[in-house]
Amino acid sequence: MSDMRELIRLLGELDDQLVTCMRCGTCQSVCPMYAQTGREADVARGKIALLEGLAYQLVKDPEGVQDKVTRCLLCGSCAASCPSGVKALDIFLKARTILTGYMGLPPLKKFIFRGMLTKPGLFNSLTSLASKFQGLFTSPVNDVIGSSCSKILEPMLGERHLMLLAKTPLRKDVPSLNTPAGKSGLKVAFFPGCLADKIFPRVGHAALKVLEHHGVGVFLPAGQACCGIPALSSGDSDSFMKLVRENLDVFRSGSFDALVTPCATCTSTIKKIWPMMAEAMSPAEQEAIKALSDKTMDINAFLVDQLKLTPPAPAANATAVTVHDPCHLKKSLGVSVQPRTLIAMNPNYVVKEMNASDACCGCGGSFTLTHADLSAKIGQQKRDNIKSSGAQVVATGCPACMMQISDILSRNGDRIKVKHPLELYAESL
Question: Who contacts 60 (Cβ-Cβ below 8 Å, separation ≥6)?
Answer without folding.
Answer: none
